[in-house]
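hey so u asked for the seq, here:
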Amino acid sequence: TKLQSSLKKRSPSPSGRPTDPRREGWIYVMRMEGNSKHLKIGFSDVHPIDRQRALKRCYPGIILVAVSSKYFPHAHRAEVLIHTELAHHRRYHHCGKCGHDHTEWFEVSRDLALQVIARWVGWMQSCPYQLSTGELKVEWKRKMFRRPLSKRLLPAADHFLFDNTWQSWTDSRAVSGPRSEKEDTIDIYDRGYRSE
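ran it, structure tokens below
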């Protein structure tokens, strides 16, 4: 699957050197005021409050919904995994202010978005990649080959089945420590938010 391909790829870093620190960062969720159906899910190497200020040039009513609780290595890779899992929900917004297409918008419930984010941020914070090379650690490579995942891409309606497959895979963290709960991986900012 596309997720398996993303998991296997090396982090962008020069061979034998520590991972590029610009790949460390935060994962955030934002929404537009008055629109609870579209969420912006992204990566930032600055705190998402600062990222929110920058985004107000294009989206004056943007609201910060949630942020990963820690600044962590390979955060950019976590973003790729989150976007890959939610690909069926992706929506593109052409911006009349800057003229660019904004590609990190998803038509998805807040609950599903936070569940997917908690899974991949929690897994990434368990350090599954070598910091020196950016490669997936041997124990996770073995696990991937030992328990192959479904080869078919599931439509959005089947996300529950797809979600359970990846949740069981990331939950079996015997090789890298105990499971983190959602509250340990995500800080909620927009507590009054309700999905419509």
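Helices lie at 2-8, 48-55, 75-85, 110-125, 138-146, 159-171, 182-185. The chain has a mean pLDDT of 77.
lmk if thats what u needed
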